[in-house]
């Protein structure tokens, strides 16, 4: 079993990294989870997490840690749309037999459709659309919480806080949602300012369930926020379909919420993901090795 070529599939997200070791024939030997591997965290950090996770997975597989040098690694990493980050990864000294890398959306799309034509929309704390059609790629959105990801949980949560602050200042309508959000900050705008100075997207996203709950109860502010997010995600999906995708998988914590709010023509194209992003990363690594020989 262990005489086969070994592959490491990495799904490196902003908050956690998942890795899987599999053989050439596809047998899964071991898996592990570590901390985030968004390239914004720095090369030393992400390779430290990935290497530690790979060692854990080797141990789970019953293999010696020294076999890390036998792993052909496919890295799907958050933050890779930036060319500067790709150059840093390419130059980084790694412990693996070989590496190839792409965005986490690309490997998720490969896994979702098992290497065949299709598209995905990742919609969780952030958002990103990806299509792969006959070897051609289209990536949409995913430029980060600050300037993109409009239909994401992070942006939904931030919109709720903004609405609550406006309502507190009598500049917008007060609703159950705005009052509930302000209650989280003890009805003190200064606490919101303090929160915003250091809050990360996931911390804004923690307010997202409140918005969906309020929407279900007919809250007009919540409904407006959700409709805005749905419209943003629908634009991404329509662009992916126009690119040629005839199958689309929604992934992430808000996938079910968004799926049921899409129009019928889009819902008819939505299919469950066949496999996960680690599977896609292993497919990428196998393709890389075939092309290199």
Indicate the CATH architecture of the largest domain.
2-Layer Sandwich
CA-based shape: globular
Count of separate DSSP helical elements:
12
Beta content: 15-25%
What distance separates the N and C termini? Answer: 22 Å
Name the quaternary structure: single chain
* Structural class by helix and strand composition: alpha/beta
CATH domain class name of the largest domain: Alpha Beta
Helix content: 40-55%
Description:
- The chain is of the alpha/beta class.
- The chain has two domains: about 5-115 and about 275-290, 2-Layer Sandwich (Nucleotidyltransferase, domain 5), CATH 3.30.420.40; about 155-265, ATPase, nucleotide binding domain (Nucleotidyltransferase, domain 5), CATH 3.30.420.40.
- It is about 45% helix and about 20% strand.
- The strands form two sheets. The chain has a five-stranded mixed β-sheet with strand order 3-2-1-4-5, sandwiched between helices. Strands 8-7-6-9 form a four-stranded mixed β-sheet, sandwiched between helices.
- A hairpin with a 4-residue loop joins strand 2 (about 15-25) and strand 3.
- It is globular.
- It starts with 5 loop residues before the first strand and ends with a helix.
- The mean pLDDT is about 95.
Give a short overview.
46% of the residues lie in helices and 20% in strands.
